[in-house]
């Protein structure tokens, strides 16, 4: 199954899969960072927006919102969730923005879907071009050198008479610039259990390498992966929020 196929086939379950994520806290945290580092504007583009949960919160904070995603079924759900926003089908590694934005976001490590260094570079260039003067690019990322292949995140929810169990984990085999996001989904009802497993190939970089890619275009600030408070990255953790101000 390709990564796009998973989101197509399971788009209806995507919000259940993410039921333990505090989208409000994430959106509010990035809104605060934008207030501090940004240009004061409120035109937002959310890359790899999925079903639009962040857009819903940014809209509530007074932003004019656009979401871009490569998967139409995810965008259809986003449009239902947030009829006031604009949605665009496209690849974040090669998009032409019809306008410029004050804030461009990419949540849930989706920047890694760029796949390889060259595509990530072209994503960074597209973002730079699509930002207004002093605009902010904000995303979260994982450092390949800090991936622990033994760790996984799991949670279960009940929905419509079934129990859904979701698992996700990173895998990095120790060299090169590829890592994998492994996903597993189990749906159990009174009669049977169905299972899906999937592996998404993603670009793997150290934070230092990522900072080097971004630095020609942006002033780069790196923060600990916390949305409720603003804490500078301690240069040890493998999860971080990148806040990049357009040069
Ligand atoms: C893990 S989901 C994240 C969705 C949303 N940002 C969230 O936080 O819930 C990843 C999303 O990235 C999208 N995606 C994957 N590759 C992409 C690409 N090259 N360009 C745009 N979207 C992409 C998928 O279709 C999917 O909706």
Strands of the largest sheet, in order across it? 3-2-1-4-5-11-10
| Estimated helix fraction | 25-40%
Bound molecules: S-adenosylmethionine
Structural class: alpha/beta
Question: Could you describe the largest sheet, including whether it forms a barrel?
Answer: 7 strands, mixed
Low-confidence stretches: none
What sequence of helices (H) and strands (E) makes up the elements?
A: HHHEHEHEEHEEEEEHEE
- What is the approximate shape? globular
Give me the CATH fold name of the largest domain.
Rossmann fold
Round the Cα radius of gyration to an integer and report it: 18 Å
- If helices are DSSP runs of H or I spanning 4 or more residues, what is the number of helices? 7
In CATH, the architecture of the largest domain is: 3-Layer(aba) Sandwich
How widely separated are the two ends? 40 Å
GO biological process, one term: methylation
Keywords: Methyltransferase, Transferase
Protein name: Class I SAM-dependent methyltransferase
Organism: Marinomonas profundi
Give a summary of the structure in a few sentences.
The chain has 247 residues and is α/β, with parallel strands linked by helices. It is globular, with a radius of gyration of 18 Å.
Keywords:
alpha/beta; binds S-adenosylmethionine; transferase; 247 residues; 7 helices; methyltransferase; seven-stranded mixed beta sheet; Class I SAM-dependent methyltransferase; Rossmann fold; 27% helix; methyltransferase activity; Methyltransf_25; S-adenosyl-L-methionine-dependent methyltransferases
């Amino acid at each position: 199954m390709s990564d796009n196929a998973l989101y197509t086939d399971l788009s209806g379950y995507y919000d259940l899969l993410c039921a333990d994520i505090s989208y409000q806290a994430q959106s509010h945290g990035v809104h605060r960072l934008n207030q501090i580092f940004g240009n004061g504007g409120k035109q937002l583009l959310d890359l790899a927006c999925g079903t639009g949960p962040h857009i819903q919160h940014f809209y509530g904070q007074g932003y004019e919102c656009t979401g871009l995603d490569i998967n139409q079924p995810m965008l259809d759900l986003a449009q239902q969730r947030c009829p006031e926003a604009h949605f665009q089908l496209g690849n974040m590694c090669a998009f032409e923005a019809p306008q410029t934005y004050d804030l461009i976001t990419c949540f849930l490590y989706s920047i890694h879907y760029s796949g390889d260094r060259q595509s990530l570079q072209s994503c960074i260039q597209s973002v730079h071009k699509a930002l207004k003067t002093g605009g902010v690019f904000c995303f979260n990322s994982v450092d390949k050198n800090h991936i622990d292949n033994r760790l996984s995140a799991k949670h279960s929810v009940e929905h419509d008479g079934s129990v859904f169990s979701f698992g996700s984990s990173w895998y990095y085999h120790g060299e090169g610039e590829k890592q994998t996001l492994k996903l597993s989904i189990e749906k159990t009802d009174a009669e049977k259990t169905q299972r899906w497993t999937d592996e998404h190939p993603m670009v793997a970089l150290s934070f230092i390498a990522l900072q080097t890619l971004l630095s020609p275009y942006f002033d780069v600030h790196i923060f600990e992966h916390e949305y409720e408070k603003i804490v500078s990255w301690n240069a040890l953790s493998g999860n971080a929020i990148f806040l990049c101000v357009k040069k």
